[in-house]
Amino acid sequence: MLAFIIKRLANAVFVMLSVTFLAFVIFTAVGDPVDQMLNEQATQAQRDDLRERLGLDDPFLVQYGKFVVRAAQGDFGISFRNQQDVLTMIGERFPATFELVLVATFISLVVGVPMGVITAIRRQTWYAEAMQFISIIGVSLPSFVVGIGLILVFSVWLGWFPAFGRGETVDLGWWSTGLLTHSGRMSIVLPALSLSLFQITLVMRLVRAEMLEVLRSDFIKFARARGIPARSIHFRHALRNCLMPVVTMTAMQIGGLIAFALVTETVFQWPGMGLLFIQAVTFVDVPIMAAYLCIVALIFVVLNAIVDMTYAVIDPRLKGADA
Amino acid sequence: MNTHTPALTVEGVSKTFDVSAPWLNRVLERRPKLFVKAVADVSFTVEKGTCCSIVGESGCGKSTVARLVTGLYRTTSGNISFGTGAEGRPIRVQMIFQDPHSSVNPRWRVGDIIAEPIREMKLRDTEAETLARVRELLETVGLGADDAQKYPHEFSGGQRQRISIARALASEPELLVCDEPTSALDVSVQAQILNLMRRLQDELGLTYLFISHDLSVVRHMSDQIAVMYLGRIVEQAPVEQLFTDPQHPYSQLLLKTIPDVKNPKRRVEAQAGEPPSPLNPPSGCAFHPRCPIAMEKCKAIMPELLQADGQARVACHAVAQKE
Amino acid sequence: MRISTKMKSVALAGLSAALLATTAQAETVRWGAPRDIVSLDPYSYGDSYTINFLNHIYEGLVRYNRDLEIEPALATEWEIVSPTTWRFTLRKDVKFHDGADFTAEDVLASLERVSDETSPLKGNLPAYKSATVVDDYTIDIELNGAYPLLLNDLTNIHIFDKGWLVANNAEKPTDVSAGVEGFATFNTNGTGPFVLESRTPEAQTILTVNENWWDEPAHNLTRIEFQPISSAATRVAALLSGEVDFVDSAPVQDLGRLEQAENLTLLERTDLRTVMLGFNRRDELVAGGENPMNDLRVRQAMQMAVDMDLIQDKVMRGKSRNAGTLVAPSIPGYSEELDTPAAYDPEKAKELLAEAGYPDGFEFDFVCTNESYVNEEQFCQAIASMWSRVGLTPKLDIGPTAKQTPKRANGKADVYTIGWATLPMLDTYSILVQMLHSKEGNSGVFNWGDWSYPELDKLTQSAAVELDRDTRLQMETDALKIAKDEIIMMPLHQQPMAWAVSKGFSDFPQFPDNKPRMWYVTK
Amino acid sequence: MTDQSDPKTPSRTELFFDSDLWWSFKSHKSAVGAAIVLGFVIVAAFLAPVLSPQDPYDLAALELWNAELPPIWMEGGQMPYLLGTDVQGRDILSGILYGTRISIIIGIASVAVSLVVGIGLGLMAGYYGGWIDNVLMRIGDVLLSIPIVLVAILVSSVAQQFLSPAWREAGVAAVLVLAIAMYSWVQYARVVRAQTMVERRKEYVQASRLVGTPARRLMLKHILPNTLTPIFVAATLNFGLAILIEATLSFLGVGMPPNQPSLGTLIRVGNQYLFSGSWWIVLFPSIQLCILVVAVNMLGDWLRDALNPKLR
Amino acid sequence: MTQPILASKDHEVAIPALEVSGLSVEFPSRRGTLLAIDHVSMRIAPGEILGVVGESGAGKSITGLAVLGLLEHPGRISGGEIHVGGRRVDTLSEAELTKVRGREMGAIFQDPLTALNPLFTVGKQLVETIRLHSDMTKQAANARALELLQSVGIPAPEERLRQYPHQFSGGMRQRVVIALALAAGPRLIIADEPTTALDVSIQAQITALLRRLCDETGVGIMLVTHDMGVIAETADRVCVMYSGRVVESGPVEDVIHNPQHPYTKGLMAAIPSLHDRVETLAQIDGSMPRLNARPPGCAFHPRCPHAGPKCSAATPPLVSVGTTSAACWLQQGGCQ
């Protein structure tokens, strides 16, 4: 187990170093923040001076080295634009994005798993076919179109849910949650729905594929031959055997969802990390962009590691394998 | 059969596979490198025009021997040498595989499959000659010349095995290594293939190294038999002697437990125990935990393969004592 | 895990629209803004949107009244002691939000802070040399030279409390390069009509009324909820569903829809900002080859080829004001005589091009941004399309400001858009010195095409030190005439500004500089 | 042994029309429907220069006074603008046809690029194993740990910065292709690698090795064809995904520029007119995008099931 | 080991464990409906082992699955009747079948590695099955599971109950599968190639175990295999299948020593002998026809050395020939 952890760590470090490097290469090329930081009346001398103080004139590797050393200490510098500590800024927005992603993941599992099971065990019925068709539409609709549509229907026409923002939030220590207030819960409905639509279909398709695979396996045939009732076969034997890939994919997708949330956040003005990132891109706020990229990669790496370790704990075949 | 010129000489050949845990795990858990001795100190000779068989249960190393002889694996130690064949060059080796489904490329036409060795080894000068040779080979193995245009999936298992044989013959080998060539076939088809192989041996003067777990097939095909257990040859004898007077307790066990079709409802006394894992072989004679006549000595000392009654060579302390 | 009782309120978005209308307090304004302010520190970033918002919390020595005329604020009166020394008498009995008294020391600290070497806002007070405290309520400001526009500049220099700055180690402006956050980035202590209650960046900033404000409030607001909604469609949706009751940048194409909404009032007018095109005037075009745009006839042809009336009608929905000169009518230095938009004459344009030796036109780079000006993407395409019709080949390059600015500033654009409102100075001098003047020293920072008109330079330099207002304005007008005759820049229009306000407000003044000033709003 | 063997050898086309695949296709109504729709969309897109009343990329062809005309069946609609015009006077139908063409080209190109890279590297990693495998897979890890939207935003925004004006028009599309391909090759590489590791051990490969076939030929002629089935399915589904990603990037403003609109750009621009009454500017491109991707995904879905040996 | 497995079940000798009559199974496909099983009849008495032998594609496994009601889609029973312990099962609904499976009939499959759910311990799977078919308490079921493991010859059963399938060797796993099949004391066990995946020495252990259990508990076993040797060793009677039909059936000794049908004859001759050596094996040319290309009449006639015109015209019925029955015109008036 220890070796496993060390290997995961080494891998994570490698991935993180590469990501930071990539981030850095890209960001230094994106644009010049100085013009954004000064106003119309600033002089050329002031511009040059600021550029020098920001270290933008240093050789590339020097800039990168400084960046990595500080990033490793959790210091991504302070935002060119907002002049706040970047990590704090991202930290403030993290709960919003995380709650959105969490709710979206929850929705996708609650809706996607049963749909996947039904389409797998009732393959020929009209409703399974209908669900299949809906799922194809689900993976095909761009989430920005979905978002715009949801706002148009549920906010403007029907007025059921708010069109933007997060509603009232409650502070729990450093974490601010919108899930404890009515307005917060109302606010999360549309963005979470729009974010989860793709995910629902992904989960559903995966569950269906895995179920079909497992249902064809010998041990299911054998279980049926033992007279185990269909319900127990489907939900106790088969579903449990295909949950592992579902859990894996769900966990892996969380990283992707966090990144993908930036589209949803843009459409719904959800005050999360993605919105911050998109705005940072517009304003060439390099520290924020770099930190965002690194944090998304970090979340991804951490989730990956957790999934791997959970695997080792859950699956009896792997548990014994190391001994 | 009486020429006594060896086609193949295998001397003290061993093959070890490194199945160690990755480097980091070994360092952390202070585990040594782990090797599996798939084949240990195997020596035998196959004389020209004869058929030598290797029998044993799964995991005994017989397939590894086949792959060592053909050169698909490299030996860890020991020496494999070939006699001289036609035109004074070393004997050519080809192999026939077990699974008729995976031994031919499903996406190639039969003609191309058989022509591949001719083209790769440039055995014919022109394409027309190559095609003529392919037709000839197809007819040799009992297929039609038209079949060259078809794809493997249009053929039954037995026919595919014929294709496989034709391909092996295409490179004009003198020694054919046959790795369980009929164990995936039905009995009636098995008879066809065995007869074909016998016919080819006579017509082309082929030498066979025949690998099988099926004693009745082995008895039908071979001149010499080597019985392997856990990577070692435990008994080697001419076919008649082995079947009438097996010396090694393992050979006796095999002969006793093999179902005898001609002798129905023979209530066999099943002997307990299963073959040990090659990862963790028993000390001394590997067979001693299952051996009814095991002695103290067997647990400690590995018996050597010694000359016994008749032309047999046996690796057993009990047999050696009896001498 | 204890739930903190402090509720951070964001938008009251959770309630349905109908509920909102009845429960919202009459004195609250929920402001749906196109973007967030960048910081709570007005000196942190050269961003006029932020500075204006913070004007609700902080005040300057002088301020603009409802008619955009300068009136006393924290200073009650001033005199020019010598051409380079101004004396300000300060208002007594003014208290900061934390209760501290306002004195001349605070003014000195604030001026020093904004003029610090590292201050990004140094350029907003270019003439400042030093200041001397005469007594608690009198201060002298020393200038580098004669400078007529000091009061204009001071409208946007917010006054901090010195004691508060010192106590929180914020006497210097925040230095981004030092990698340290500034206290003033998160905290405020001004004298203004509103007090900061809370701020969550990109989500909401809440202000409440300052009960102890020195001035008689013209407003009756108790609370401002400022919420950035960057997506225009979402912003309009929020307005239509009643989730916000004021939007300060309504998309022109949605005005028709908003007009029909029963619960809304539209406030429209044209901005002070004049949007114009600049020409590359270097010897070679960006892609290489001789630069035809150094020929006046070519620039004339390019101007004539553009049908601004059609653009006004279709792209700007009739809401813009076509411009003949580079500043808006209310900017001092403006002359109505010059403000005659060029006539649309594609035939003449073709002739001129042929005459200049380009009968088949030429290819050039046309750099636009996609979010700086109202419907910029659309009018750029329309202009490019019109140019194509007279045989030119514009290569349109549209992108975000951050990407386009380096191209424009470094001469990598043959034709580019730029808008100038002369803010915060509100005087023609601003555009003369920053944009039209040759690139030398501190002048011509925005002279991106790299042209030089010595006559114009001379007029600009003279206007800078001319204390007689009429003479100065005449000089500025003369300079604008040169710019017009030479088509140094090609003026397009003053862009429209549209505010949408819910019906609940009885007074909601709109200002031509597009800055909402809530202390004039009554509900 | 040649019992019941037909002397006439069927040609490849005959084989195809006799195959289970074709049969399954014919009996799958939604697959046939999707194929017809997709064929129609693709043909229309590539005949865009012939079919569309206007060249939406030709700036000189845009007539501003025809801006925001409604579709032909509404009051104020004008020929030839069947689906109306946008704010530039650009014919929506022409925009959609050309935009679809761009979307499809970018989709196909990005799939092609990632296929070539992914298959090549996957084969090498799977066949040789060892450090080559390690290096390639670690690179894949890195790319996969940056979500695709970010990769694409970053690559395209950087590249656009460096593109010289002369190259911009072709370049933007190329950059989008690269950005999308940069992410998706990893997927193919992983599939091919896994499959290669399986195939490499199969007996037909060993038989071929025994006659001295060199590694390159083993990989290309033996292993590669047998890894293509899952790749084919993945490529179809990724084609749909690529179109979506391109649309998303264009929607976020880092994709195709408004003067060369793809479907995503049309939707982004049209979105600004959602409340102004000119709903057709956003609606028709959105519908087209959805139709296109739904059709691709339905085909891909059917293909996945049809080619899955386990589901028959 | 001495305890009987079945608590006490009166198995009436009169009622066969399995009676299949005229069973047909068809698979609709795009090229028409394939008849996988064509009028197959067989009967297994309690305590009897019936070997069903045939080459791949003969339909022997499908027969087993049809009895269990586990035919895979789109396969379906198109005719005939199946009685298990006197009760007709082919007409039962899926829900009713579920109650019969496990209780009345059990199954053993080829690959013990995949037949067990990898995520549950062996004990859990046993207890689940036991409690499903009885109203035992958890403890009682546990005790019964222990007893079962013991009876199939698994050493240290207490410990083994807590282990997962992957911790068992192949032979041991097959024993667990057998224990599971026996859990509810069924009248019939369908054993589909139970020894094919095992080594020769283990194979003998498993067949011996089956034989013993059959004798001890009176369960009827349908032993489906392609291996004539296993049949010879284990079965009481044998049923030879060819291309979906039973071509010969009878007591195992009689069929082996005195096969009536040309196919059985050929098959027996094709098996290389352990005792003597011939230069060429007797061989049946060609191979079993695919289901979609089954020749008319006797399906074997294209490969049959005795085939005459009658053989391709009509399908011979299965009739008694001495102790055995065969489906061949040769015994029914010749092939001409």
Automatic annotation (TrEMBL), chain A:
Compartments in which it is found: Cell membrane
Record keywords: Cell membrane, Membrane, Transmembrane, Transmembrane helix, Transport
Membrane topology field: Multi-pass membrane protein
GO cellular component, one term: plasma membrane
Key word Disulfide bond present: no
One GO process term, biological-process aspect: transmembrane transport
SUPFAM superfamilies in alphabetical order: MetI-like (SSF161098)
InterPro entries: BPD_transp_1_N, MetI-like, MetI-like_sf
Transmembrane segments: 12-30, 100-121, 133-160, 188-207, 242-263, 275-307
PROSITE patterns tied to this protein: ABC_TM1
Domain annotation ABC transmembrane type-1: ranges: 94-307
Family recorded in the similarity comment: Belongs to the binding-protein-dependent transport system permease family.
Name assigned to this protein: Dipeptide transport system permease protein DppB
TrEMBL record, chain B:
Any one of the GO CC terms: plasma membrane
Protein keywords: ATP-binding, Nucleotide-binding, Transport
SMART domains: AAA
Domain of life of the native organism: Bacteria
UniProt xrefs under Pfam families: ABC_tran, oligo_HPY
Keyword Phosphoprotein included in the entry's annotation: no
Membrane topology recorded in Swiss-Prot or TrEMBL: Peripheral membrane protein
GO biological process terms held by the UniProt record: peptide transport; transmembrane transport
Keyword Repeat: no
ABC transporter domain boundaries: 8-255
Transmembrane regions: none
InterPro entries in UniProt: AAA+_ATPase, ABC_transp_ATP-bind, ABC_transporter-like_ATP-bd, ABC_transporter-like_CS, Oligopep_ABC_C, P-loop_NTPase
Any one GO molecular function term: ATP hydrolysis activity
Subcellular location: Cell inner membrane
PANTHER family from the UniProt entry: D,D-DIPEPTIDE TRANSPORT ATP-BINDING PROTEIN DDPF-RELATED, TRANSPORT ATP-BINDING PROTEIN
Family: Belongs to the ABC transporter superfamily.
NCBIfam families: oligo_HPY
Record's protein name: Oligopeptide transport ATP-binding ABC transporter protein
Natural source organism: Litoreibacter arenae DSM 19593
Automatic annotation (TrEMBL), chain C:
Organism lineage string: Bacteria, Pseudomonadati, Pseudomonadota, Alphaproteobacteria, Rhodobacterales
Residue stretches making up the Solute-binding protein family domain: 69-442
A GO biological process held by the record: peptide transport
GO MF annotation terms: peptide transmembrane transporter activity
Keywords, alphabetical: Signal, Transport
Pfam families on file: SBP_bac_5
Name of this chain's protein: Putative peptide-binding periplasmic ABC transporter protein
Signal peptide: 1-26
Compartments where found: Periplasm
SUPFAM superfamilies in UniProt: Periplasmic binding protein-like II
Cited PANTHER family: OLIGOPEPTIDE-BINDING PROTEIN APPA (PTHR30290:SF9), PERIPLASMIC BINDING COMPONENT OF ABC TRANSPORTER (PTHR30290)
GO cellular component: ATP-binding cassette (ABC) transporter complex; outer membrane-bounded periplasmic space
From TrEMBL, chain D:
Keywords from the named record: Cell membrane, Membrane, Transmembrane, Transmembrane helix, Transport
Topological type in the membrane: Multi-pass membrane protein
Any one cellular-component term (Gene Ontology): plasma membrane
Subcellular location: Cell membrane
GO biological process, one term: transmembrane transport
Organism: Litoreibacter arenae DSM 19593
Annotated ABC transmembrane type-1 domain residues: 100-300
Protein name (record): Putative peptide transport system permease protein
Main location: membrane
Transmembrane parts of this sequence: 31-51, 102-127, 139-159, 171-192, 227-252, 279-303
Family, per entry: Belongs to the binding-protein-dependent transport system permease family.
Domain of life: Bacteria
InterPro entries per the UniProt record, alphabetical: BP-dependent_transpt_permease, MetI-like, MetI-like_sf, OppC_N
